[in-house]
Amino acid sequence: MAGLGRASATVAAGTMVSRVTGLIRNIVMTAAVGLIGSHAADAFGAANQMPNTVFTVISSGLLAGVIVPQIVKAVKTHDDRGSAFVSKLLTLGVVVLTIATALALLAAPVLVQIYAGQFSEEAQALTLSLAYWCLPQLFFYGLYALVGEVLNARRIFGPYAWSPIVNNVVSIAGFGVFIALYGLYEDATGWTPAMIALMGGTATLGVVVQAGILLLFWRRAGLHVRPDFRWRGIGLRHIGRLAGWTFLMVIVGQIAGAVQAYLVSAASGQDAANASLQQAWLLFMLPFSVIVLSLGTPYYTKLSEHVAEGRTEAVTADLGSLTRTVGIFMVGVLAAMIAAIVPLSRIFSKDAADAVAFSWVLAAFLVALLPLSFQFGVQRTFYALKDTRTPFFYTAVQAAVVIVTAITASALVKGGALDIAWLAVAIAFGQSIANLAQFALALTLLRRKIGALGLGPAFAAIARFVLAAIPAGAAGWGMFLLFGGTSGWSASDRFLGILGAALIGGTTLVVYAAILAAFRTPELAVAGRALRRFLPGR
């Protein structure tokens, strides 16, 4: 457990710094191209969404779901501790990524029609130009995930969590140069080749550096790897069956995301649209990335080991423990984000009115923050059991709900029943409904597969956390009103928004922790130990 704790702390620290620098990156980016009603922001968002969407799904499923269990098994059973096996897998991965990137570049005009089909002609042209710069990220994101999962399987968690920081630093510098040269530029017209190269090239250069840094840590894995195209004899057919379902899950997720992007593009240049959905999702995912991934990534390797040993009772015990530990953090963070939602939104917006518009999009996503957090452990349990078909099934259901709700929102706008200013909010809320349905279905299917999950005590603890979070959130919201609300100082400026969000969120968390302490909540001690690992010398 001590090793697991150190690994969690390493991943959490790296992920936290990465997400904080990523937050700064997005703030600088919105200062360069705007957000609400910005043609340029929506164009860059659509171009950059193509590789990012693929990476998000691949890193959470295709690679993690197939590679980690296979490498853990190879290390335990092969005489060379898995070196030959990893050589063949990496060679295959690089070949597939090269082909996929080439095809994406050839299909760039089609992809622009899919993701930005309702943009103006000028905005579509800008999106296409930026896409040619952004799409090569596919290869380097894939390489980063591929090498990173191999390192994770060898219990080397730090580099994978820390290397995105350099990516963010490169992007911050590049976007800063853009601001220095051109200022805030929201139009889709007037873009020179140098402007396009600076924005698109900056985004891609960061990913290239991020992937390259991982290779510096390869020796620590203790694997002797070389190109090996002899893929026969490594169980490729078995891996293909596992990856096949996950690949279908990728396709399903892509279709749902493309439908959302296409439909919300109708609001581009007027109200919250593509860029607003992306920035709200990234802010929504910030606590998920810092807390859930930092705790869950080491647990996943442990789950894989328990499955290999046939210890089902240990798997369910780990799942319950992870759910409670994640829950005590995420419930408090959810209350803090709701209380500080307007100052948080002001960080990305040019004025208070845009901040309020953006905050509604973020609020619609926050509805599903807890279910999405708890589902991480459930989905990784399926992967540890080498079952990728079941996750495909419940992800397909989720994607269907996403598509139906997005189409419904678009139809309501076209029919006049819903103002176009609320289109992005409705699509985001549909995403949350889909995530709720996905979590409920995933729990049911996992229970059928391995029997009782023993999550009753964990969910009872979550209910106690929520009861404590309600007055804590009210205290934070009261502070926001005391600061003047939407007309006050915390919504008047980007930097004051950061200060206001910190004060409001911090107050909410302090009250939340005090209530839990007053009722002697046992999970509070576990959370305290997790936090103390970040202290110097710990």
From TrEMBL:
Q: Does the keyword Transmembrane helix apply?
A: yes
Gene Ontology biological process: lipid translocation; peptidoglycan biosynthetic process; regulation of cell shape
Transmembrane ranges, per UniProt, are: 23-41, 53-72, 84-110, 130-153, 165-185, 191-218, 239-261, 281-301, 322-345, 357-378, 390-414, 420-446, 458-483, 495-519
Q: Give the main localization category.
A: membrane
Keyword hit for Transmembrane helix: yes
Which InterPro entries does the annotation name? Lipid_II_flippase_MurJ/MviN (IPR051050), MurJ (IPR004268)
GO cellular component labels: plasma membrane
Q: What is this protein called?
A: Putative peptidoglycan lipid II flippase
Stored Pfam families: MurJ
